[in-house]
């Protein structure tokens, strides 16, 4: 399947520059996979499509203050964007950098953010250790910086959000806990505490997994053919208690509704790779719907994949040519195995409707519920 088939045009004015207020006032497109039927609602109405015994599963990872600012000894300004911790202590990181002549051996003084504290944190010395073939840098800090990130860094927003000046906490989900992501699992941004309580009263369960989101999640697929793309790896965890709850709900006839594509990748890995099953072997069936695990996930889901753990999906509108768009296309087409392109065609047709109806796209944008 050609990657170009997952391209589409989007007017820039439809890229959301700020979140809906309140969170659950965002629009909700409901897409029915069986026949492609579409309904237009508000996110606060999502309970109308869920029933007692269903289970929402969400990614509780929290975005770290990954963007650091500093300068070289020559005075040149430097920006360091933390991507991935390379040692247990948190002294060495893979980073994106912005600045001139940032070659191996260059030293950078990272400055703390301006604050009202009488004694702000001292600057931290950093050294460019290596330049990777991909263009990222290995940066070694003079001391572990994880405990001081909230004094040194700021929560990053995606590059297509250029005008937002509000509270960066709006780029976190209300249930986020462990820090580790450099981008938010944005499908969960629509939930409010009040909505979660209302769903619980309705009999809808709520559990969390953890997948620390990396920037590669949003990169366009550059391979000419979808199948030749090499998917990125992210760290994830599914606890034994949550796996047991998911399996119990499934045995009792409830639906597992994933909040976001990162949750889908975690749950589907728990149903395949964590149990030693080839995810693209249509004859391979897990002995249980999910199994507990903690470790790297590199599951690449595109049309033709057979879903084993997820029955419904809450997601945002995704970038063209992204692996996320391919994952959602595969999910939409799940009920039409005789036509591997049905999901892509149906999803992109829904995107065209969204554009005509003025839906807001990407991280701060509106949501889809796919059942």
Give structural notes.
This protein is of the alpha+beta class and 371 residues long. It folds into 2 domains: 3-63 and 167-370, QueA-like (3-Layer(aba) Sandwich), CATH 3.40.1780; 67-154, QueA-like (Thrombin, subunit H). It has 6 helices and 18 strands. It has helices at residues 149-152, 193-201, 240-251, 261-271, 323-332, 342-357, and strands spanning 27-31, 38-42, 55-59, 62-63, 67-72, 77-85, 92-98, 107-111, 124-131, 137-141, 153-154, 179-181, 205-211, 234-238, 256-259, 293-297, 312-316, 367-370. The strands form 3 sheets. It has a 9-stranded mixed sheet with strand order 2-1-18-17-15-3-13-14-16. β9 and β10 form a beta hairpin. The longest helix has 16 residues, at 342-357. It is globular. The two termini are 25 Å apart.
